[in-house]
Amino acid sequence: MVNYGFVIDNRTCIGCHACTVACKSEHDVPIGVNRTHVKYIEKGEYPNSTREFSVHRCNHCEDSPCTTICPTSALYPREDGIVDFDDERCIGCKSCMQACPYDALYINPNTGTAAKCNYCAHRIEHSYEPACVIVCPTESIISGDLDDPESDIAIRIQENDVRVRKPESGAKPNLFYVKASDEMLDPDATLRTGTGVWTSQEGGVGHYAKYADSRLAEADTPSMIVQLALEMKAKEANPRDRAIIHDVMEKLKSEKTPTATRTYDAPSKGILWDWDVAGYLVTKSAAAGLYILLMLAIITDNYSFGLTAAIGIMASVGLLGLTGLLLINDLDKPTRFIYVMLRPNWSSWLVRGGFTLGGFSGVLILHLAIYFLSLPEQFHVYLAIIGIPMGWLTGTYTGWLFKQAVGRVAWSSKSNLEIIATGTIELSFFGGLVFGLLLLSGQPAQWLAIASVVVILGFYVGYKHILQDLRAAQANPLL
Amino acid sequence: MAKTFIESIAQKLRIIPNLDRKEPNVAKKNLENFPSSDNWHHHMELDANAWPKRVEKNYSLVPTTCFNCESACGLLAYVDKESGQVAKLEGNPHHPGSRGRNCAKGPATINQLKDTERILHPMRRKGARGSGEWEKITWDEALDEISSKIRASLKTGAKDKVVYHVGRPGHEGYTNRVLKAWGVDGHNSHTNICSAGARTGYALWHKHDRPSPDHANAKVILLTSSHLETGHYFNPHAQRILEGMMDGAKLIVIDPRLSNTAAMADHWVPTWPGSEPALFLSWAKMILDQGTYDRDFLENWVNWEMWLDADHPSEPKTFERFIELLKDEYAMYTPEFAAEECRIPVEQVIEVGNIVAGAGEALSSHVWRSASIGNLGGWQVSRTLHFLNVLTGSVGTKGGTAPNSWAKYKPTLFNEPPAPDGWNELHFPPEYTMSHFEMSHILPHLVKEGRGTMDVYFTRVFNPIWTYPDGFAWMDMLQNEESVGCHIAMTPTWNETAFFADYVLPMGHSAERHDINSYATSAGKWVAFRQPVLREYARREGREVEFTHEVNPGEVWEEDEFWNELSWRIDDGTMGIREHFMSPYRPGEKITIDEYYQYTFERVPGLPEVAKSEGLTELEYMRKHGAFLIEPATYKKHEQEGWPTPSGKQELYSKTIVEFGYPEHALPHYRINSHVHPSNLEGEDEYCLLPNFRLPQHIHSRSANAKWLVEIAHKNPIWIHPKDAKKLGVEEGELLKIKTEIGWFVDKVWVTESIKPGVIGCSHHIGRWRRKQDAGNRFMTNEVKIEDRGDGKMRMRTVSGVESWDSEDPDTSRIWWRDGGVHQNITHAVQPDPISGHHCWLQKVWLSKPGEDELYGDVEVDMEKSMAHYKKWNEWAKERETHPRGERRPLWFKRPLAPRPEHFIMKDHKE
Predict the structure, then answer these.
(1) In this structure, are residues B210 and B198 in contact, taking their beta carbons and an 8 Å threshold?
(2) Burial grade of A150 (CB within 10 A; 0-12, 13-18, 19 or more)
(3) For residue A211, what pLDDT is reported?
(4) Structural Rg of chain B based on CA atoms
């Protein structure tokens, strides 16, 4: 069986961008996003300064994290090594963009679906080379069968020292560079500032564009400053922000003094999961936590399942509903949300989580049925035996989804214990706030008012904290 | 991929659409680059974006050539049979120069074809010149009105008042023939700001005025250029430079800036601008001292005896004595001397010199613009560079450097009218005796001095207001109806010069016009055919087309047919012009474009036989394949042809330059310091601005509507070394005011280790603009306001950067950049070199922080200073103006559109 891969030969690559444009032409890629692009870095001091070029695109990994996480198998590995995609299956959840360590994917603004280099599969079908391979003036992009020792690509690999990006990702990339420096391969070796020698990113691209304007208005949370500083939008920011940014940049410089500079890069796609994802994490935790605390109270005979409890269950249902709405709102193809259930890729935690949410909703409905049909209260306890674990999983599964996002090291490096702890704490916190409010239901109005304020404040602070962490995890350049 | 049970059921129940796909063909296969040309009319591809759904698209592949630089690389246009439109362009595997590959500008051609802001119809101005008010007219009206103006001018007997000024020719000989038919010495070009400096240096040696390096076979590749990223002929050269390097050749790049090319070099030699001749002569001295010169070549092919006769008449005329005297002549060019002039370490001079000295016959060297056009005396750069090829015996050898004429095909045209009966002194003023090509960059200044006017002036893919130095002088001239009676802009897109025209005529891009191309991209000789692809497609489908504008977008036409029609109409039957446009196959009838090319291709050596073997006419062959290899790599042609110089040899000693008043340059020397030589700068407060470096993605005025190129490069900051930045107290992104000798501009700073301290750089591809009343190119143009402040000062201010807009193309609303850079060229003083006439691009500048009301993008020019500066430089030419035997210029030198021989002698010459 053939195993397609790429070699990029940096001994001959002249950084001319013919590949970037040929690919744009072949797939009519919108401006702002690229299936392949060239990064430039410069290092050294005059007259020993030098510039290097690095071509990036999908690495057609053997163990592709994007195909693992894609809930609908819109992204799928082929027998011939190509990682292909079918955009009619895509729901625009952007998990793939979080999972890919190589920033290979983008949301196509024309369709709202994910796209990337697919090795020109439509050309391979008829035995033609990918568009980038034929255009390159110096034949620096080599395609072919990695497993055939007599193929050009295999010989190129045998005869030269080759390197890959981020071997530690575990994705087993099939894109090999002949002659690549450490500074070129390490995304943190150079700062991504949004400004290059010939370019200046002043607007969002693809999915990011949706948030660009609102984000530019906010400039006061520490994590946002970090991000802004890294993206150098700060040049247009107000003097106070500039001062903060200057400090952050100084700190960054001293922590990790990049000796190389990034002088050309594709525009940043920025933050992909933002307020709606943070929002649904809050509402989901609240729904789960509220249920668990309520059921624990009932199981331990500290509470009986009366109207208040029913209201609590309904509140949980409402919060789950809100979760669902926020989830769907985040999708770039919201009308296809049902594909998560009906075209499931079982290996994806987005699917597992989706079904868990579904199962948990079912449990909640059953509780309400037990109540409204006046069935024995004991049934609640029996139901809670599966309900509580299901609720707990509802509140914590996102950690495992995030862990599948191999591209975001802050998430993928979390241990199972950390995931369990974080999820449990979150559902206890948010659930606890609502549960507390529920417990005070019989109290006088002013108690309720104060309690409501506490709950709202608590939610706000918690939400902001989650949002900050979410953004920080996505702030670092992948390439 | 295996489908889950749930999905199968859901699809069956029609809850979700059926997305079952046919399995892809994952078998092992050999991958091809291109389909065979026998199948080009029936090529089927699957729609890239519908995949994995299989949607078949049927294409007719039509070859043409790219128009985005002079390399004319092959392109294959994919004509979608369903829409009848071009969908994309790939390379042409049959093109011997580009071999199926292209730079970024090739595939970006589709952006230029589909530009929503293209000019689609002929336009005529309504208000005053430059007011921005236009009305659509018909081609018929355009032809009638313009032809009558030309007729009126020709009838006055003037031979120099109808002018065609070309930026990008992209063709061989077509328009010169037309001008001859009209009887005017009316060809002007952009060469004077491009390769003119290098040309004079080469021409002094052997008349051939450009080099053709054989990089693929070289041992040492010596570039005073950046041909891995731009220039003539970027793509074909880059291919072969890397081939050579992968075979072991060493790449040496001479450039004060770390270009992408220098970044790939084994040796980056950052010389102080203009000092390159010192470096080359120090290497010449090393070669002489080491004795590694090619005795055979020097002894037999160089005019050393003439030198001995002239300068050492009493010496024995032996080769050995010649060598000894030569060593004396060049004794001063020690490595230490070079190191000091160039401001590089002496160790580097010696190390790299040894590499060059050891190259033998395989030294491929190249200079086109760069130092030869940047500096006063820049022609010394090419003259001394070629000296190295002469010494190593690598002239015209395998792996060496040949004259470009050896690899360039000059077509035989169906009719050659007589040479013009006049001499245009606005193009070849008497004081510039050795200029190569016209003194184009001082045209407005000559006109202002009262040296001439133009009745009809065509600017063709030529945008001097923007690309040229001192653009306000052009704006001034073009707005003056006394100086320029009628201005016609022939262009595919709007541009800054077209805004000031009387007529704007849309001419087709690479897939929309006819041209013949032949360029020296390597040691072989080829000819290629640029054709309107939809016309060829129509023919393949059995439809005949009379004029290209019938198939092009809107009414976009092409010059070839326009010239034919226009010329026919100029002639009222008495002027003898029509005779030159009559078909060679149907006597008395107007020639068609197909006949023109059939005639020309019939005469391409070897083509008739090959076409016949495929059962095709020559024209059919070229329509089908797009290109033809006339001659494979052929070396040492001088052994049959000799050298076309007065001595028949390589002129080490130039009697010509002595006769024309510059005896100190009899031999190649470094006798002229650049105008930006450190001795000409006021210490460390004056800097050298390097404004003429180019980018891989852009091509002067044509790429502004290529969105995929503009998103890669849209701003042009000032490159400055950290040491200089610190001295000036500026950090990255901050503003700097760059003051030239006639004006200033404000730009952002880019602090970088990639430039020589004391030199600052700014790319002159960026900074396009339009005023509120102008249209076009909104991916790249800033909106500016131009103000005449009185007292001779012109001010330009950026009103807004690049902005998104709504159109049929969704991408126009997705523009993620706002910064359109700064227009620096307009602040450059014109600086005509007295000997080669070339414009010396580098500018002496003073740097400071801008004042409060001096904003990013601001530009100011003092028109009085610009005229004074021109006069100062012009005086230098006049001071030494010499006309031996009354000759305007050396008779054996090339001159485009050469008039009758008697006009080469000054009229008031007394014997």
Answers:
(1) yes
(2) exposed
(3) 56
(4) 28
B134-160 pLDDT per residue, tens: 999 999 999 999 999 999 999 999 999
pLDDT digits (tens, 9 = 90+) for B608-663: 999 999 999 999 999 999 999 999 999 999 999 999 999 999 999 999 999 999 99
This complex has an ipTM of: 0.97
Q: Which of A17, A25, A52 sits opposite B712 (nearest CB)?
A: A17
Q: Which residues contact B327 (CB under 8 A, 6 or more apart)?
A: B285, B288, B289
Q: Mean of the pLDDT values across residues A81-93? A: 97
DSSP for B470-484, please give it.
Answer: SHHHHHHHHH-TTTE
Q: Would an 8 Å CB–CB cutoff place B286 in contact with chain A?
A: no
Closest listed residue to residue B75, CA positions, set B607, B630, B532, B546: B532
Contacts of A378 (CB under 8 A, 6+ apart): none
Cβ atoms of B572 and B151 within 8 Å: the answer is yes
Q: Give chain A's count of helices (H) and strands (E).
A: 18, 11
Q: Is the pLDDT of residue A441 over 90?
A: no
For residue B775, the number of C-alpha atoms closer than 13 Å in the C-beta half-sphere is: 12
| Percent of chain A surpassing pLDDT 90 | 82
Report pLDDT digits (tens) over A129-180. Answer: 999 999 999 999 999 999 999 999 999 999 999 999 999 999 999 999 999 9
Euclidean distance between the first and final Cα of chain B, in Å?
A: 92
- Residue A248: per-residue pLDDT: 53
CB B580, CB B570: distance < 8 Å: no
B1, B245, B750 member nearest A76 (Cβ): B1
Return phi, psi of residue B228, to 5°.
Answer: -90, 5
pLDDT of the residue at A230: 44
CA B291 vs. chain centroid, Å, equals: 38
pLDDT tens digit string along B230-253? 998 999 999 999 999 999 999 999
The total of other beta-carbon atoms located within 10 Å of residue A365's CB is: 12
Q: Which residue of A has its CA nearest to B235?
A: A137
Continuous segment of H or E residues that includes residue B883: none
How distant, in Å, are the alpha carbons of A154, B337, B567 from that of B591? 57, 62, 11
- Identify the CA nearest to B68 among candidates B245, B249, B233: B233
Angstrom distances, CA of residue A375 to CA of A292, A297, A360, B851: 21, 19, 20, 83
Torsion angle defined by CA atoms of residues B451, B455, B459 and B463, in that order, rounded to the nearest 10 degrees:
50
A137 to B235: CB separation less than 8 angstroms, yes or no = yes
CB within 8 Å: B30 and A24:
no
**What pLDDT sits at residue A242?**
52
Give the residue-averaged pLDDT of A54-83. Answer: 97
Say whether B285 sits in a helix, a strand or coil: helix
Total beta-carbon pairs less than 8 A apart between chain A and chain B: 258
Higher pLDDT pick, A202 / B266: B266
Percent of chain A as helix, strand, coil, to the nearest 5: 55, 10, 35
Rounded to two decimals, the pTM is 0.95
Mean residue pLDDT across chain B: 97
Structural Rg of chain A based on CA atoms: 25
What DSSP string describes A361-374?
HHHHHHHHHHHHTT
Give the dihedral sign, CA A10/A14/A15/A21. negative
| Residue B750 structure tokens | 């880019």
Give the integer Cα–Cα distance in Å for B42 and B40. 5
- By the 8 A CB rule, do B773 and B490 touch? no
Tokens 């033609």 belong to A128
Instruction: Tell which phi-psi region holds residue B2, choosing left (phi > 0), alpha (psi between -120 and 50) or beta.
Output: beta
- The nearest alpha carbon in chain A to B89 belongs to A25
pLDDT at B864 over 50: yes
